[in-house]
Design goal:
Layout (H helix, E strand, L loop, with lengths): L29 E8 L7 H10 L14 E9 L2 E9 L3 H12 L7 E7 L10 H9 L5 E7 L11 H11 L3 E3 L8 H17 L9 H8 L9
Helix pairs in contact: 5-6
The structure holds guanosine-5'-diphosphate (GDP) and magnesium ion.
Length: about 230
Amino acid sequence: MVSSGSASGSSTDDGHTPTSNICPYNEELTHKTILVGDSGVAVGKTCVLVRFKDGAFLGGNFIATVGIDFRNKVVDVDNLKVKLQIWDTAGQERFRSVTHAYYRDAQGNLCFLYFTSLCSLCGGRSSAWLTEIHEHAQKDVVIMLLGNKSDMAAERVVKMEDGEKLAKEYGVPFMETSAKTGVNVDLAFHAIAKELKHRATQQPNEPKFQIHDYIESQKHKTGCCGL
Ligand SMILES: Nc1nc2c(ncn2[C@@H]2O[C@H](COP(=O)(O)OP(=O)(O)O)[C@@H](O)[C@H]2O)c(=O)[nH]1
Ligand SMILES: [Mg+2]
């Protein structure tokens, strides 16, 4: 491994401050994260976003998303500020035209959080959207599969293994979330922010950030009782 400068990186023999081989993270960057999900099912995208942004659950109030809307939130990663711009979506048809524009986004570093509800039969099945994202988005897009409503144990129809199997098929991380209890909600966004920060500062000789391993080590596995 070639190392430039001293271990502390403070100065070189000729007295100049070395060009650091640590790529600085640009805190001004905004990363788009798009919430999508099984169509025709209220999977909880808006509630998860509200939970992450405001730490609250909308309860029984059904808030149908009017149009596409976004919220900004800054996530702290290793003492750096990673800005996420999180887009909520409603309705597959409307979404389709919007996402096609995103797919062409030259900036890259686009993230998709794909939601399914653990209480709906759509969950655990092969998803048209996951296929579409894979086909159209840039290769480096970040995708994560979330099985929401993990608190609703009695109504659950999707087994954790089914979610894990689907995620494996697409090579994406999976976790079960609940906008109601908040379980794993912050983790989903933090994992994305961490991945983005690592990508932006990654050195060629450095090992990649293993988002799957990070999630596996951090996630709360929902037990049989939805807790
Ligand atoms: N029990 C439970 N209900 C949820 C959860 N997330 C959303 N909901 C409920 O599911 C319904 C649809 O949520 P919403 O966020 O509007 O779904 P969206 O259409 O995907 O944005 C609402 O009645 C929410 O209160 C959750 O994690 N647990
Ligand atoms: Mg919504």
